[in-house]
Hints:
Elements: H1 2-21, E1 40-45, E2 48-54, E3 58-59, H2 63-66, H3 72-81, E4 90-91, E5 94-99, E6 104-107, H4 124-130, E7 140-142, H5 148-151, E8 167-170, H6 172-178, H7 190-201, E9 208-210, E10 216-218, E11 221-225, E12 234-240, E13 243-249, H8 257-260, H9 272-288, E14 293-295, E15 303-309, E16 312-317
Parallel strand pairs: 6-7, 7-8, 8-9, 13-14
Antiparallel strand pairs: 1-2, 2-5, 3-4, 5-6, 10-11, 11-12, 12-13, 14-15, 15-16
Zinc ion binds at residues 147, 149-150, 250, 296-297.
Amino acid sequence: xxxxxxxxxxxxxxxxxxxxxxxxxxxxxxxxxxxxxxxxxxxxxxxxxxxxxxxxxxxxxxxxxxxxxxxxxxxxxxxxxxxxxxxxxxxxxxxxxxxxxxxxxxxxxxxxxxxxxxxxxxxxxxxxxxxxxxxxxxxxxxxxxxxxxxxxxxxxxxxxxxxxxxxxxxxxxxxxxxxxxxxxxxxxxxxxxxxxxxxxxxxxxxxxxxxxxxxxxxxxxxxxxxxxxxxxxxxxxxxxxxxxxxxxxxxxxxxxxxxxxxxxxxxxxxxxxxxxxxxxxxxxxxxxxxxxxxxxxxxxxxxxxxxxxxxxxxxxxxxxxxx
Length: 323
Ligand SMILES: [Zn+2]
């Protein structure tokens, strides 16, 4: 009797499942939409209204190529624990807009039209507009550094400024290094990076201010010199009321690999040893002060804290809020 009932039940349910999956069976009339979450996220830092604008994803190929000094077995083991593939290693690009009251400030600007790291980037302008911010409203652009994935959203392919009313703020060391004509010839990715920096930075030359370590760039935004990834890489401490918030830029790229192993060299570091020293120093500070922060390349929207974990550190994402 029990077997008979079970057989009847299976027959009945398999019929239901089959009819639900059949096209035209009448249970799924609405078309699938195919889009994901909006490419922006808004949150407060004291009185500042902050909006993270995604420029989309970068495809960096195999993680083994990006961390050449690390053991492939260790990379594979960490990424397996995170349910991530070794290849492709995908990194987000989280640009940050700060409405500080008197000014609208954009930190970093993505890949623009450059497809060096795939076709899922270059979405800054579209996502800005979706977030209700027009390029003409941006008063200031602050760069962490002059790499191709941070400065390429500034100027359109035809040379037109994407942000016609904006002043540019960045370190002189990075401006001089990455716009240096002599570096247009050479090996590896450097010539392409220099070409992109020259295309995007030189048109802003007459509206450029250099930032200096520990000095206020704009009200509530203080530069922290964090060299190594590039010669003039700069992080920014943002303060409003009694709240502080850290924009680390590219002091760290991968949230799983480089927190556990902050000493690892990253392929695009200009000075990998200095980058590691800087990373550990900034992680120490952020962990000790329990600073909320944003990582440009962390999983969207890129907000979290750093805590000490064993010999290294750990990234703890801040849950997104709605309403
Ligand atoms: Zn970057």
